[in-house]
Amino acid sequence: MSVQPSDSRVFRLEELEPNQSFTVSQLYSDAEMDEFERLSGDHSPLHVDAAATQAYGYPDRLVYGFLFLTLLSRMVGTHLYHAVCASVAVDFVNPVYPGETVELVATVDRIQSSLRSVVFKVRFQRGADVVGRGKLTTVFLDAR
Hints:
Blueprint: E1 2-3, E2 21-28, H1 30-40, H2 45-48, H3 50-54, H4 65-68, H5 70-79, E3 83-92, E4 100-112, E5 117-126, E6 129-140
Parallel strand pairs: 1-2
Antiparallel strand pairs: 2-4, 3-6, 4-5, 5-6
């Protein structure tokens, strides 16, 4: 089963199945980059100055990896009933630039019922290109 961004269903731990996937996406604009800079306090020239990144051969400033990691929070908060992110491990493997859309596909890898947790394989894509990959562990707080 695959849950798309337009699907508003919320799943309890007991309703999840191995290989079930959830997809959310976001187009990252300059305005979102500027807001993330303000909120995070990360003023790295590679994220805020296109001229600085062009000196390294990139066409534009780099979207913050932690900005597109917020898709994990969106997926959990939108589709999982009373769950929280407990652990995240992601490798950033390709750059993303303002004006591009990143899509998260999170696939149930392991359900640990006794611990009330689920491990997801996560893949962040820009079109067909993988820009990040790793895993997310969630814990479900509500046993009802």
